[in-house]
Amino acid sequence: MIPDRDLFGHGPNAQTSVLPGDRRQSVPLSLLEKIRGKSPSMRAIQFLGLLRVPEGKKAGKPLKLANFQKKFVKGAFGKGVTVGVLSIGRGNAKTALSAGLALAELVGALQEDPQPNREIIFAARNRDQARIAFNFVLGYINGLPESDQAQFTIRRGSKLEIEFGGNGGGLARCIAADGKSILGGAPTLAIMDERAAWEREKGDNLENAILSGLGKRDGRALIISTSAPDDTNTFSRWLDEPPPGSYVQEHRPPFGLPADDLESLLLANPGAAEGIGSTPEWLLSAAKTAIARGGAALSSFRNLNRNERVSIENRSVLVTVDEWLSAEVAPEDLPPREGPCILGVDLGGSRSMSAAAFYWPETGRLEALGTFPAFPSLADRGAADAVAHRYVEMHERGELSVMGENTVPPGPWLAEIVRQLDGIQPACIVGDRFRHAEFAEAMNGAGLARVPFIWRGFGWKDGAEDIERFRRALFDGDVKVVPSLLLRFAFADAVTLIDPAGNAKLAKGRALGRIDAAAAAVLAVAQGARMQAAPTRKARAAWA
């Protein structure tokens, strides 16, 4: 680490550091004479190769870019690209790379005829994180010849700034995620570090302020981060729905793989194979430790080290990703439809989803179906719910259907749901007691008036029992289901609210979340657990 002193020997309280009597002139750095590239990307790669590693195991050695880093630089600084987006696991030198690019722009290395008075913004979630990037830039400067160092002015204190006096001049600022910090700025390069971790409102304000300022001088933005915890995060939107002029490079393994799967670990951490950051052996060891600890430790490892979209806010989720994945089996390993079938139903209101779950407690088989009204379309609804094309994909997989115009008609929908059982009569139907009248009409319309209906509430009383029974069945391996996007996304959005007595009830983790399928599954599995636990009644002997 760089000591808490500036490059010119001043203590930590110094506001400005510059060589005594220095009269800086507008001259380029000596190493710029070695750059022969024409395009900004090639010039950036050549410039970075002339720097020295500032810290770590290879401190003092020439900086050597890994293949994935070269690929990102070429893409982000390509012709017609204004925003470069990189998503990669923690410890793959994201900040070190972006700090080097910030220095390249500061000294005017990216163009043969650079703009004068260049402005670089290095934005991070908070000041401490900004200081890490600031120290990386200082470390690179510290590796330059002393004659070149004399052209830099370092400012600490309330502002973290580096000013360059040569080659037309430039100013680099490290700021926290507060949109007011750069109002009126006109950056030529803006770097948003760990964008997924920014506070939602302030982060979006800062991003909007940065992007609006870039247009003044044909600037470029680099957005670099590990994966966000969900699809609604602004960083996820950059990856999933990049606007024109964007270059996206995402190192994220497929969902559902074991945490210690080495191939996917290296996909999320390409630097490990090239001597950057954690070694493959360390990653495997950390994965096994996270698996053994489970819970928040495993969720955090998946999000930060495997670069998966997994929430690390684990205290109130209904079940974690790994807990749910333990129930998924291949289609050929799914238990048969044997024994009584329980139908759990979450009847949707106007314009919302209706969902049903079938559960066979004797075998543990679980199936789920969801239905939306036809208007708006699944594509438009997915855009409005911030899940992109997920609803269309669920429909193509047969997990989500469309019925009705603006609302799903309860009677015909319930009749269609029962037809999916291929002649199997449900032993009972479980649903919300507050929709009693609608359920009664729907069952009459579907010809199910004689099927027993069990009313359950979604409040603290019934909800706490159903959630606990569902979790116990899941953890005991009594729930088996084929991989289902409908259920994965429902459980990803499902959280529990806890009252002072410790009772839990089901709730949405976000306003646009759809937890209907998760609610139906909880109802069905909990009722199945009650049926399995009920004592078997013996027939009484009849006397002649």
Automatic annotation (TrEMBL):
InterPro entries: P-loop_NTPase, TerL_ATPase, Terminase_largesu-like
Region: Disordered, residue numbers: 1-20
Domain of life: Bacteria
Terminase large subunit-like ATPase domain segment(s): 84-228
Protein name listed in UniProt: Phage Terminase
Organism: Paracoccus denitrificans (strain Pd 1222)
Organism taxonomic ancestry: Bacteria, Pseudomonadati, Pseudomonadota, Alphaproteobacteria, Rhodobacterales
